[in-house]
Amino acid sequence: MNRSTVGRWEAKGSIVLTVDGLVNVEASEQLLGGRAETYRGGKAKGPSAQKARQTFSPDLGNSPAQDPLALAHAGLAEVIRAIGPYAARMALEFGAPLEVAYGLDQAVAVEADGIAARFLAQHGHPDTASGYGALDSLGLDFAEADWVALAAARGVPLDLDALDAWFTGTDYWREPAKAAA
């Protein structure tokens, strides 16, 4: 594992480092144990894999008693869950290859979740201020695009492992600080 990977994982909150830059295995395992069963990047191992994820149907009505921050959180979660698959579908409609659609699905959803979490944390949301993403703080997973249908629409065979290998080999995945700049 190279240093940029470790730095990226630390920045994303996937691992905990000691003061001297070594991985704190016990703290990292405890942190990762809170992940959803499925998440961007794979399947969780350990206790998190047994946790049932809650379903979410926010009430976006204009109830005067509703907390505005909770309403913003619910609305942002709906956008984040929809935006990745939407970006993938639009990429294919614009003629992009399946790899680009997959990359956009992954990157757009993760970036939107990070933007929403920073917004909510700036406005005092307790869970996102503690380092959880906007979806994770609600116990939600990212929505998955219908890759079978998208590949069929593109007229190409579907190999999700190959798509994931391609995506994790991109500069975006390897060096997110440069990709975000």
Strand content: under 5%
Helix content: 40-55%
The rounded distance between the terminal residues' Cα atoms is 24 Å
Mean pLDDT: 75
The structure class reads mainly alpha
Radius of gyration: 17 Å
**Distinct helical segment count:** 9
Main beta sheet strand tally, sense and closure? 2 strands, antiparallel
Low-confidence stretches: 43-56
Describe the structure.
The protein is mainly α. The chain has a domain at 61-180. The chain contains nine helices and two strands; from the N terminus they run H-H-E-E-H-H-H-H-H-H-H. A two-stranded antiparallel sheet has the order 1-2. Strand 1 (38-39) and strand 2 form a beta hairpin. Helix 3 (68-93) packs antiparallel against helix 4 and helix 4 (98-122) packs across helix 7 (160-168). The longest helix is centred in the middle third of the chain and has 26 residues, at 68-93. It is flat, with a radius of gyration of 17 Å. It starts with a helix and ends with a helix. The relative contact order is 0.13. Residues 43-56 have low confidence and may be disordered.
For this entry, give a set of tags.
mainly alpha; 181 residues; single chain
